[in-house]
Fold:
Amino acid sequence: MRDRIISAFSQPGLPPDSDLPRRLWPAPPRGGAYGDLTHAAVLVPLIDHATGMSVLLTRRTEELPDHAGQIAFPGGRKDLSDLSPEDTALRETEEEVGINRTQIQVIGRLTAHDTRTGYRVVPVIGVVDPPFTLSPEPSEVAHIFEVPLDFILDPANHRLEAYKGAEAGRKFRAIPYGEHYIWGLTARVLFELAEVLRKS
Structure:
């Protein structure tokens, strides 16, 4: 599986379309559907267990100002010292969950996504070799868990669900997994990852 993933990302991921915004870094200072954007990056950590790959995810704490309580990848906004999305994703991963960048093989990116909370997020794909020690940052990470990559690759596990109330008529991607409800940006990135790997 590792060789298949590396081969799939020997070229960039899917081209942008109406659902998957631009691939720019850094984010533009103004304009776009969501106004001024802050550039950010997340790591999509693929854990290369001997029994098969999994995707490491976190549940954010309820105290965070943005996306509180949601399932997310480790990541965050660009620091002044970050020269690339990879720098941001690796730094944030070490800060949030304790995986050192020396244990991560970066193999590519997916398409940048704009969020309604004002971020342009670049997903960076990285393969992580066990063993490693997790050290969650308590102010940001409430829980860390893994989802088998085979589960993510199965189209039967992806849903397109409708918002209710004031946003009725709009739809969002979701991937329920046990007690975890993966939706929004995280589900969109996992959907694109599955599409890239299914075509490889």
